[in-house]
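Ticket opened by: R.M.
Priority: normal
Category: complex prediction / small molecule

The reporter submitted a protein together with flavin mononucleotide and asked that the result be attached to this ticket for the collaborator who will pick it up next week. Submitted input follows.
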Amino acid sequence: MIVYSTRRGSTKKIAEAIAEGLGDEAFNLREEWPEELEDFIVLGTPIYYERPLPEVLEFIRRNDGLEGKVIAVFVVCMADLFGVLGKRYAEFRYLNLVKREIKGDVIDERIFRGWIRKENSRTIKEAYSWGLELAEIFGGKHLMPTLHVEDSQGEEEDTRAKIKW
Ligand SMILES: Cc1cc2nc3c(=O)[nH]c(=O)nc-3n(C[C@H](O)[C@H](O)[C@H](O)COP(=O)(O)O)c2cc1C
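Result attached by the on-call engineer:
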């Protein structure tokens, strides 16, 4: 599941592109809060005045820091307009402002270049590709990866049941 918020709609478009790639549902916190949380959550917020949106931080806090969940975080901002330094700044500061609230396992993160007026089609494509990438790991609703290992007798064993996140 994808959970996000937005003020002017760009994060909505980005979340929907991720959702399309991932083949999962996106929840806009301005409209509805999901009643039940899945084990894998893609969480996104734009940055306004150096801060993630408060409802996204509130969502994390109200759900016990998403403890026990596997999370991929994305932020939408314009800091990378200021070149490599801006991008680094966004990576360290903006992503950390979200990640430091999370008690679950953050397994992936992305910065997306947002926009103010003209939609950034490159960002939409990147978001869709990221969704596809995440689907490869967390395809459909199945969180458990299939891993085959040889046991001591040399027979293949399905270890799916043994892997815990
Ligand atoms: C009033 C305002 C303040 C913003 N502040 C920041 C900021 O502090 N850092 C940044 O990198 N981008 C900033 N941005 C850029 C937004 O993060 C970007 O436009 C984003 O795509 C907005 O997301 P939304 O359309 O989902 O609301 C700001 C944009 C606006 C309009």
